């Protein structure tokens, strides 16, 4: 049973466990009134399941949402795909009468304790996940510790997004999620307003800008040139990009970083080889003169 449910059914014992105090009681009363109001509204205006499904499928027809609706990551030699946090948020918003989010419960000793939750106010079905977030991140130069409150907030929000997605998907019926994913795929496959090569060029630009992934690395991954990519390849590339954005995978899980270095080394070798070639010469009156010493005739 959730903490809020415990508070609702056993307010006296909850206040005692929190140590009492005027501020604690005021905060508790305000939170309980908000919860009661949400439950009252949910019971008074229950969701229309057919209307909620229609709103979800309509939202999935937006190309901007369909592009970011799925993620993909490798596991045991296969690619695992699923709905991204962006799609999960749209599902919860359009399903209605759902409270969801990420709360920071405590912050001390260089770490935060947070909770991701999703609560169906109509059926009193609740999913929640409590987790700990270190105020640091691994970099090439070692461990970087955060001290700026904004950096800490963004780290907690980023780590909480994956737990929040799992909570939402634990509440929304699975068949609705499957239909939303299929609708997003149809939207991507049926989008002909912009040429595929332009969309691919934009995708490659974003991969290079945000994750230092070059075109050569992408072609090495797929096994052929991007000029031969199909609509299906574009969708798969989008899933990889979304998984990188969500932090589900790292660049090394998909691409060989040595590919770009080898390409660069070959270009440098070709340049040095061209510099070693003798410069062209021009004949004048059977005398060979280096091209630097020739003069253009005056008009």
Kindly summarize this structure in a few lines.
With 299 residues, this protein is α+β, with helices and mostly antiparallel strands. It contains 13 helices and 9 strands.
Supply the helix-strand structural class.
Answer: alpha+beta
What letter string, H or E per element, gives the SSE order? HHHHHEEHEEEEEHHHHHHHEE
**Percentage of residues in strands:** 15-25%
Helix content: 40-55%
Mean pLDDT: 81
**What is the count of β-strands?**
9
- Strand ordering within the main sheet: 3-4-5
Radius of gyration from CA coordinates: 29 Å
Counting DSSP H or I runs of 4 or more residues, the number of helices is 13
Unreliable parts: 12-17, 279-299
Largest sheet: 3 strands, antiparallel
Spatial separation of the terminal alpha carbons = 95 Å
The general outline is: flat
Question: Features of this protein?
Answer:
299 residues, two-stranded antiparallel sheet, alpha+beta
Give an overview in words.
The protein has 299 residues and is of the alpha+beta class. Helices cover 55% and strands 20% of the residues. The protein has 13 helices and 9 strands. The protein has helices spanning 3-9, 11-17, 22-44, 49-59, 63-67, 85-95, 149-169, 174-189, 196-211, 215-222, 231-246, 251-254, 258-276; strands at 70-75, 78-83, 98-108, 111-120, 125-134, 136-139, 142-145, 281-284, 287-290. Strands 3-4-5 form a 3-stranded antiparallel beta sheet, covered by helices on one side. Strand 6 (136-139) and strand 7 (142-145) form a beta hairpin. The protein is flat and about 80 Å long.
